[in-house]
């Protein structure tokens, strides 16, 4: 009896510590945890890490309130490793979406990398590199605190991050990256790291027709719940030829897809002078607000 | 399924509850349940070799009985030899076949006999080095009449397949474990809580210390050609700690889990870095392997070579340590690792200090300067030798060590000022202090005699360290062996 009491007490203490950290610092200890702790939504930002840091839901909520959309907006973007376009991401989006949504707003941030697939995987046989990662390994996407996420994604947690505030995932899903480059050299160093990664991407990944078809399916699915808008976010011009090499004719493909589905495609790829990035690929928090405002203006115009 | 995974928590809680509530009535029920749990555990890790494990259990059980029941010495020897051929054959095939196969073709090439060959793709069954050595030890003990053969297949199966030790040891001895399995286990509060403490310390050693050291050492070893001597020395330091924390952490978890079932496995590590000579170090490092090698290789070999006096002893030690190294894997790096450790014994043999072993600074807070110097010197030697353990080839290890002893050894490594290194060193310092404090105890975290407030504060503090600094890697260095 004494042992049972002690085991229960010690388990309770451990659980209480973890729960406190998750509730108080959930956005600091893991960049995606908060997305699975909020209620289901009717409007979403969908995309990779560019959208994760670059599109701010609060700006959209302000600019587009009263326009008939079912707000608030949730940034349901992940990293490129977790969320390339495909059936798994679509399934997760639908899990997070309120089923009775009629006038939702869906901003689909798209980049050539999101249409790549591991060369060793056959997408047609349901082989996807992202299969074991969040959000695809999650059954409960609106539970607070979310112990399922903790158990299944323990390795992505950095509990010591409660002592620092470099990356803060807001409750609305936007990832606030406070680690801005201090000098031009610092920026170039980060950009070079990405260039190097891109060349490795090239060796391992290739354009997937399957993922392109999935993009079409995703658009058609989301249109049932509201308006869908496609956007390509600004990147350093040095990346553009690399991206073209990975996915030749990307803009034409997306253009024809948007025409087919009668939706708009806003191409911001050449605007990195106006909207600056912190590493060549991700918008700086100092410019993400301005960029989101511009995106909202484009949506309003159409 | 490793001990530091959520899968294991999901597995162990119902198994423990059923074991102590439903199956506690008799040793037979306890053993049936333990065997089923062990089979599930092994199959969950890799079901493909379950048949091999079962075949090994059946054959060794049968041979143990045959050795004991044979009336003639020659018959006994024949059954022993069958067992030796089977068990060593298993190891040779699964673990060493490609090593010898490649060596053979390399030798042909030396004589100009060029030949094309492809190595076979042989999967290594999990835990084979551990359970094979256990069965070998059992058969030799039965042959030498050190133990009576077990007449009960169920008990013998639990002895071989008991899940906490099947994947990575300790390499148990029949004389220690079988008598415990034969009896009904009674629940002991003290043993159970001590097991939990040992698991907690093992988790800390693995998830915090070993993983932190790996995070620092891996990039240094992977890119050692471009690093300064001082940084390479740091890399060797962190790797030596990683190796110890990884394996001693696993052993503490295995022993701790075993205690939860009322079974006490043998101690596998006894603060080896607090040793003042190499002989003492090996009495405290991977004790279950070292004692196995001493009993079944070194002792008979040194007896055979006793006529050569100290030379015979040196040959026996070096041969034993080459085998110790080779046990770790089919690579010349491990052979070299063993050879070097064997060579380190030579001064002790000739100075007659080989058997001196005692707890450093027994009953004192601090070691003397002489003891401290000896411990540090031994640690540096072991740390440099561990480079062979980590390197992919012998040449790579020599290059790594040669690069340490360059002018850049005196260059201050700026990495040392980074937060990652500082945190790593502070954590290692804490780990070392706790191990030093408990070096005279039964295990590294035996704190049962402290008052309750101190004990509970310690548990919470270590839990927080695991939470804040821990990583949950699903691999252990010794799994590959």
TrEMBL record, chain A:
Transmembrane segments: 7-27
Alphabetized UniProt keyword annotations: Membrane, Transmembrane, Transmembrane helix
Name of this chain's protein: Uncharacterized protein
UniProtKB/TrEMBL annotation, chain B:
Ranges annotated as spanning the membrane: 6-23, 50-67, 79-100, 120-140, 312-328, 334-351, 372-391, 416-436, 456-479
GO molecular function: acyltransferase activity
Keywords on record: Acyltransferase, Cell membrane, Membrane, Transferase, Transmembrane, Transmembrane helix
InterPro entries per the UniProt record, alphabetical: Ac/AlaTfrase_AlgI/DltB (IPR024194), AlgI (IPR028362), MB_O-acyltransferase (IPR051085), MBOAT_fam (IPR004299)
Topological type in the membrane: Multi-pass membrane protein
EC number: 2.3.-.-
Subcellular location: Cell membrane
Recorded family membership: Belongs to the membrane-bound acyltransferase family.
The protein's name: MBOAT family O-acyltransferase
Lineage: Bacteria, Pseudomonadati, Bacteroidota, Flavobacteriia, Flavobacteriales
